[in-house]
Each structure stands twice: as C-alpha cells, then as structure tokens.
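Minimal example, chain plus 3IX.
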Amino acid sequence: MTDQDRHGASAHPHDDASAPRAEVFRGPTEPPEHAVAPERHPQAPEPGAWLGTHYDQCFGCGEQRPEGLHLRVAAGPGVSVTAEFKVAEAHQGAPGLIHGGLLSAAFDEVMGTVSWLLRVPAVTGRLETDFLKPVPVGRIVHLRAWCVGQAGRKFYHRAEARLDGPEGLLVAKAAALFVGVKLEHFVTHGRQEDVQAVLEDPQRYRSLRAFDVNP
Ligand SMILES: CCCCC/C=C\C/C=C\C/C=C\C/C=C\CCCC(=O)SCCNC(=O)CCNC(=O)[C@H](O)C(C)(C)COP(=O)(O)OP(=O)(O)OC[C@H]1O[C@@H](n2cnc3c(N)ncnc32)[C@H](O)[C@@H]1OP(=O)(O)O
C-alpha cells in the first residue's frame, strides 16, 4: 500500500512525495511544536476531589437529565480527571450496546471538565474517537482525560475509556482540541431563557464559581 492509497489523492497538485511527511499529516488535535505544558491552576481541586455537576441540565453530568450520562468526575493528578458512568437502556445504538455518539459525548464531557483544573472556560473545536471494543449496556465505563499541551487559546486533550475498572480493558480512546472562550460566548449564543435562568440563579451553574467569572 502506498502513501497515496492510505491518505487519498494528494491534497495539493504540487505536493512533493519526497518531502518530510510528519508536518504534512500533523492533525489538528496534535499539539504543535511550540505548544507548552499545561499548568494546573493553584486553586484547582485536590486530586481525588469530586467535581460534581457543572450544570443541572447538562447531558453529560446534569442531575436533571434522566436520560443523560450522569458522569461523576473527580480531579486527578496534574492536569487530569477521572470519571465513570453506567451504560443505560437509553444509551443503546445496536441491541444491548452503547451508541458510539454517546461514548463520544462522554469523552467530550470528561475532556471538557479538564478545563476546571486549568480554570479556563473552553469549548470543543474538534473531537476524534477511536472505538476499539463494543461496550455493553449495564457496564460501568471508566474514563480518564488529560491535557497534553497548550498553544495560546488552544488546548490539546487526550482521553481513554476502560471496562472492568480504571485499569481494565481499553475500549475506546479520544483526542480533542478545545478552544478557550470568554463568558460572552455562552451569554451571547445560548438560548436566552436558559441563559437568564442561570444568571438569575448562579448556583445552577457551578462553573460560574469554579472559573471565578461574574456574570
Ligand atoms: C450563561 C452563563 C454560562 C456560564 C459559563 C461559564 C463557564 C463555562 C465554561 C466551560 C464549560 C465547562 C464545562 C463543559 C463541559 C463539558 C461540555 C463539553 C464541551 C462541549 O461540548 S462545548 C460544545 C461544543 N462546541 C462548540 O459548540 C464550539 C462551537 N465553535 C465555536 O464556538 C468556535 O468555532 C470556537 C469558539 C471553537 C472558535 O472560534 P473563535 O472565533 O473563538 O476562534 P478561531 O476560529 O479563531 O479559532 C481559534 C483557534 O482554534 C483553531 N480551531 C478552532 N476550531 C478548530 C477546529 N475545529 N479544528 C482545528 N482548529 C480549530 C483555529 O484554527 C484557531 O487557531 P489559530 O489561532 O492557530 O489560527
């Protein structure tokens, strides 16, 4: 199999097959050369501390979403978090197996929560998932996510999912690019009735406290 078979037709007619390939195929979730190591915020919760839900309506961690994932996330060492959730009936794709998009949602949530340790509000720009093994309903999925680099507003995260305990069978892994945003991102773009509800009762949105942002 040639490079052309693996990667499709050359993106550019003048692409030189003899040129170094590493830079050419570096994807958007790969930290660039100038990326720096992420810094855990001095006031980040201690390793082992439960982070709790950031918003009661969140599909990933919200307590008010019966069909949600109900992820329970804890701070880990460095710039990392761990989490777990039980695969429910409502999470099926094929009979008795989790829907792949929901496993990606779990990765999105757990990598999003890494922002709590950096204390930078950030949203997902790109999310990639490798599905390695089927995940049955009724099982506990153990997740781990960590930051591998920062370049300006861009944060590069990795995550993995395991069955049979935190060190068990690796069933999926993910990579993501998160982009740091200001509070205005949420206030401007969210449906106004939901935004207003949070601004009137900030207790409903724990991130407002976790990120020291005042509406
Ligand atoms: C009402 C009160 C609310 C209070 C909220 C307070 C705090 C909340 C904080 C955090 C939330 C906490 C936890 C949430 C936990 C879990 C949820 C999971 C996370 C999500 O589920 S979140 C939803 C899905 N997410 C989106 O809804 C994003 C939609 N999107 C956009 O809103 C824009 O797209 C944005 C902001 C991403 C960028 O827009 P922008 O204008 O700010 O910046 P720009 O475009 O210049 O990008 C800057 C640099 O990122 C590169 N870049 C961007 N996107 C890229 C891509 N896809 N691939 C490769 N590179 C990319 C550019 O290439 C450039 O790179 P360079 O600087 O090198 O040129």
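Residues 1-14 have pLDDT under 50 and may be disordered. Residues 100-113 form the longest helix (14 residues).
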